[in-house]
Write a structure and sequence with these properties.
four-stranded antiparallel β-sheet; 2 domains; mainly beta; 231 residues; globular
Amino acid sequence: MRKKTLFAVMTVALCVIVAAGGLLASNMGFKLNYRLNTAAGGGGVGTGKNTLSIPYFRQTGQNNANDLMIDIGGANIVPVASAARFLEATDTYAVYTGRMGSPTPTPFALVAGEGYFIAMNSNVNYIVVGSHDPSLAISLDAPGGGSLTGKNFFAPPYNITATNALQMMLDIGGGVITPVSSVAKFLPATDTYATYTGRMGSPTPTPFAIAPGEAYFVAMNTTVPYTPSHY
């Protein structure tokens, strides 16, 4: 398990209480020390793919994939192999490397509530800084329209009250899980997924924990404009 340590950024009206290894904070600001691992051969795990969620309100100047890669690499992109965005309409990815021959020569824009895959060339403890927009509703789309299969690559805010997959499904569905087909967590060590449905025969009968900094695939049965509950 990668160690992720959550710190609070001091801002106006920000109150932080740390007790029993947990953190309670307002929605004003967050600072996260998030481990991004390279492939096993370079001292990391798996193939060096990691999921990443970034704050809804990002740092000034962090607008696209190139900006994100430079921020992760500490003023250069060398530690980062690529950043990838999931395309709901086609179930494919836009991949940006920032290098000659990149599959996506123009860096894609960063979008609040959207998760990203970050492939690493070396291990980096990435310091993520930002804050949450509590009024922003993220559209989690069912099949049809802009989503091919109803899969959404969702980046929860750092102060979401849901602590596991079941709680997030209930929060999305307004107290029921019916609108949500499943929630899936990427496992970097094996390049596989843990999938939770909350129903009989779920591949993962125990709901996995929601961890700050991780992004999740949320498959929907109906489209929901989701405003995450937060503390």
